[in-house]
Structure formats: structure tokens, C-alpha cells
Amino acid sequence: MSLFKIQCWLFILLTGTTLTSHTWIPQYEQNGSELLTSHWQYKVLGNSQVDLTSTGFTLFSNNATTITSIYQNIPEVTPGTILLLSADVKCNDVIAGEKPWNQARLLLLQADEKKERWDLSTVIVSLTGTHDWKNYQGIFTVSPATQSIRIIAQLSQATGSLQVNNIKLYSIRETRMFTMTRNITLSAWGVFFLLLTGSWLFNNKHSIFMRLLLVCAFISIIAGTTFPGDTKNQVSDEVKTHFHTQSESLKATILWDLSKIWHFCSFLLLGLIIALMMTQEPLSRVIFIVFSLGAGTELAQLYIEGRTPLVADFFIDAIGGIIGIILINIFYIRHNSDKPSY
Description:
2 domains; membrane
């Protein structure tokens, strides 16, 4: 069996096992008792109203200039603890305010010694309009500096009603089966990626410079894939801050997620290099390498903390790689056509 056929079968096998294992193997199990009590506090102004029931609470507001909220402070939780907050939520005729956060929201807010940490992931659900009952869940890791946690449901300068039932908060931990499956799956994808590019990386027919470029493109793609969600966001925010302080005109030109630009450029470079190194190979094989690497890096994110695979991201990667392949093929065709014929 040829190497190309082995790569195809491995890709199909890994895709199937990754999706199946992630669907059927539970990631978390409860690791503590319920942290919420019936002792809720609330803040209302004017005609706003908060009604407590045996199963939850309802918020009403007809004033778009005030915040109607109900909250509960949680006793000190050990840093590093993973918390699961879940609730059944329904809203009716919610009209949003001017700001993006002026909606019907349920959130978990961490605070350190100095301030509330709005930069951390906080929102379970944010709704406008009318939505029937649906269960929402959010998973949060308590940061090292966190000293207090507050669970909040609010109509933040928005009108309408918000109903919350069966709200629960408890600590969780990863199941052993999930941890083992994650390690095996990520290792398997790593071996597959090396198999895709390794045959060209260790081929002495290609120059050291070309192989070095291939390594750079490969490392760039893998690094962008394996960054945990918080790390990825922090790096992206720091880069944006640097750009914003350098130039206001540059600030206005950054319209897209920097991580997506990174991946597009990385796959563009990969497409250029692979196409240049495989000029004697069928075009279908070159495209397979780009597509399988793009799909594989997205699927691997199922097992990376804080990351979510997106079909749109796969297409961004694929388009970058295809453009690189097209550019090399155009150059190759023109180069050959410019040669004198005898």
C-alpha cells in the first residue's frame, strides 16, 4: 500500500475515532456538593421586580436605564477549581440597550483583591427577544488571584422578563477515561501530522532552506492549534494593544481576529512550500495534505482546553493553503512557458 493511501486511511480512522470518543466519553464528573443556597440578594429600582420561587426566580424590568439583578456570593473557592454552572433559562420580550452587554444575562463573576475580573470568561448566556426554556451550561476555572465569586442574573439596562430555574453550581473534575482518551488522541494526531510532512522534511532532494521553511510553517500551525483558549486570547489581546499604541490608523485596519489571520498566513506558507516541494506529485495529493492538516487541527481542538473547532476556521485554513498552491502552480507554469523550445 502506498504512503498516500496509508495517510488517507489514517485520516478517516482518526476523524471517526475522535468524533466518536468525544461524543460518547463524558469529560467531567461532579467533585463536590452544591455550592448555591437559597440566600439570594437582589437590586431593583422603580417598577422593576424580582420574584423568588421554589425552583428559581424571575426578573421584570420596564426601565431601560437601570439594572435589575439578583446575585449570590460564593464562599472562598480554591484556585484552580473547575466549576460547572447550569440553569434552565427563558426570556420574554427582552429589548437590548445600547451596549453589547445590555441584555438578559446569567454569569459567573470572579474578583481578586483589587477589582472584578471582567476580562475572564464570565457569561453563561446572553439573550434578547423571546426564547423558550433551554438548559445552558458554563465551565469556569477559578484563577489563582480570585478571592470571591458571584453568580448574577440580570437585565442590564434592558427591558422584558428573564426566568431562571434549576440553577446549580458545583465543582467538577475530568474523568480518567477522558484524560486518557485526550492524551492518546492528541498523540495520534501528532504522529499523523508528522507522517504528512515528515516524508518531505527528511528528503535530501530538497534544500535545507526549504525544509526549514516547512518546519516554521508546521510549528506555527501546531502552536496556534495547541494554545489553550485563555493563552490564545491573552496573546491576541497583547498584540492588539501593541498595535493600538503604535498607530491609530493601524488600529482601524485590524478588523479580523488575529488568530485567524495567523492561521491563514501559516497555511498560505504551507501551501507554497508543499506545492514547491511536490511539483512532480499529483495536485490531489498536495490538496489532501492541506485539507487533512486543516481538518485535523480543528478536530484536535475538541481536546484542548478553552478551544472549539469551527467549520469557518477550516475553510480559512483551506483557502490559505489553496491560494499558496495556486500561486506556485502559476509560477511553475509561467517558468516552464518562458523556457525556449528547440
